[in-house]
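One chain given next:
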Amino acid sequence: MTRKPIQPRRSLFLALIAALFFSACRPVDTLDITPSPTPTPPPTATPSPTPPPADFVDPYEVNADIMGRLIALLPDPLPAVEEWKRVYDSGEAEARNIRGIRRPAIGRAIPYTTQQGSSMLLNFIIFPDEAAAAAEYERKHGLRSADVDLEEDDAFRSPNAFGSGLYGSFALFQIDNYFVEVYVEIFTTSVSPLTALATETLKFFERNRADFEAAAGEPAEDDG
């Protein structure tokens, strides 16, 4: 007996019935995917900073006071082979910050020029102690040695280093907790003024040190 083929419409109807049956038997999805809120931790109280004692003196302010007095006493003009004069900008004598110096140390570069076109910087750095100044001397000695040959001059207090080259002329000194550098950028005379400038700079330093260190860091007197 020959079986009749299932008609297309009947096949479609049976497929729909099967789909409905399996849909009805599928278990209900009860999974809740809504994330739970993250609890916010209670704020932590920030402890109040401990105030400094009433008699506290900031060492940076002490050094800044000394530096201000030192710069105010610098000679202008400074005679050394040529007549060196302070550089002024908008009526104020320049005193540039030396980069890389961290508190409580303080550093200033004071430019000088001559009428003939020479230029130099007197660099002063005040450190809180002698060890820090010695470390800066060694650091700067290493940097300058990359550009010029440095040698100690027995005519000056030790430690010192002198050198000249294409990048300028340098005289380095460590005096207790001070680092001092005479940096001649350009000179127009036939003879280098480095030795003369270093001599005058050290004379100034020793002659005026008591004055620019006097009463440094002491509180100002109350006029009232």
Q: What stands out?
A: The two ends are 132 Å apart (CA to CA). The chain has a mean pLDDT of 86. The chain has four helices and ten strands.
